[in-house]
Amino acid sequence: MALRGRPRTFDRDEALGRAMEIFWAKGFEGASMNALIDAMGIGSPSLYAAFGSKEALFREAVDHYVAGDGSEIWKAVKDAATAYGAVEAFLMTTARVFSRTDRPSGCLITLSGLHANDSNEAWRAELIARRAQNTQDLARQLKKGVERGEIAPTADLEAIARFFVTVQQGMSIQARDGTEQAALKDIARAALAAWTPLTASR
Description:
It comes from Glacieibacterium frigidum. This is TetR/AcrR family transcriptional regulator. InterPro entries: DNA-bd_HTH_TetR-type_CS, Homeodomain-like_sf, HTH_TetR, Tet_transcr_reg_TetR-rel_C_sf, TetR_C. One of its GO terms (molecular function) is DNA binding. Keywords: DNA-binding, Transcription, Transcription regulation. The chain is built from 11 helices and no strands. It has about 200 residues and is mostly helical. It folds into 2 domains: about 10-65, Orthogonal Bundle (Arc Repressor Mutant, subunit A), CATH 1.10.10; about 70-200, Tetracycline Repressor, domain 2 (Orthogonal Bundle), CATH 1.10.357. Helix 1 (about 10-30) crosses helix 4. The relative contact order is 0.12.
């Protein structure tokens, strides 16, 4: 009687990282199962056994992005000593990270699921929630600036945070279109010029 072969093993984290890059480059709908399987170096049965479905794989890929590549920007924000420094770090680190040549350009969370349809409503809502969380996280940094006397108590922190997050999202699209780091930093500097009128007493 012939012995059955052992199941093929693979590095799950490595395969997930490769899937993340496919979703990052092509978006959820543009990432075909064939492209994912080829990039991950596994067969279709192994993919479904390990991750369950394309949607579940995408969710894990987003978590992987947030914990890895996506965390670099927020580390710079949290390390800043002032509220202005936090926003400057937010935009300048964005310019560098989004334009790297060893990764897909732009932001996975911004670019991978913009178009709504009946089949993507659930996971697209999760991306929208993550983008909204960015605004809340930046607003918390601004609140510290109010407490330190750097920002006027009358300033609309949510509106300010939303403005700078919107600039970042635009930088993501610019980066995907091929805009280089220097030009992205010019965009960041132009946005930072609005800091004083946005944060001063009214």
